[in-house]
Design a protein that fits this description.
202 residues; mainly beta; 0% helix; 34% strand; disordered N terminus
């Protein structure tokens, strides 16, 4: 049986980019559940442990239970088999199912423990989907997005990689974070714009 309830990295089910895991949680228990529920609460339902191992490529990873037939809660931890350091958690994202994203970082072999539990004691048929989130085309200069003047443009930058970061940084400190490229036409000239969050702490 593939299901594991004990919080032991060697017994957690390993998942990776493209994994689609299915399980029935009717026989699962609350044994080995986390002692930290992140910003959420004890789901009071049985759960199953999974493990994602970082490739060291700083990819954004998406994990969800969309397609499961019961109410789930999803938690991701970064500290091996004593899960007290929470990375991210979610209750309802796709109807009563859960979805999260996290960055795997640049340390190859780093482990992320994923705990899926039933909300309020719920059990059922679990479907766990794990996928790498691809960066948008304007992650690099050649894919700059055209934006109109005087119109707000909203875009999530959490999947930008930093691959296309500018080399000339206009006086900005050199450890600027990853960002996105845009282009707009001002009367008489074309302007290229690069946006980035606040730089990482050095």
């Amino acid at each position: 049986r593939r299901q594991r309830q004990m919080c032991i990295r060697d017994s957690a089910i390993t998942v990776m980019d493209g994994s689609i895991e299915s399980a029935t949680t009717a026989a699962a228990t609350e044994t080995g559940e986390p002692n930290n529920w992140c910003t959420l609460w004890d789901p009071e339902g049985p759960g199953i442990w999974y493990k994602y191992v970082s490739t060291g490529m700083s990819e954004t990873i998406s994990v969800d239970t969309c397609g499961s037939n019961y109410d789930t809660m999803l938690f991701v931890y970064t500290d091996g088999c004593t899960p007290t350091i929470c990375s991210v958690a979610n209750d309802d994202s796709c109807n009563a199912q859960s979805a999260v994203t996290f960055n795997e970082g640049n340390t190859g072999g780093a482990e992320f423990l994923i705990y899926v539990a039933g909300f309020n004691g719920n059990t059922g048929s679990l479907l766990l989907n794990v996928n790498k989130v691809l960066p948008p085309a304007n992650d690099v200069c050649s894919g700059a997005m055209t934006v109109p003047l005087n119109v707000a443009t909203i875009q999530n930058s959490y999947v930008s990689t930093g691959t296309g970061n500018p080399t000339a940084q206009c006086g900005v400190v050199p450890n600027m974070d990853s960002g996105l490229w845009y282009v707009f036409t001002d009367p008489g000239e074309v302007c290229l714009l690069y946006t980035s969050p606040s730089p990482r702490d050095s």
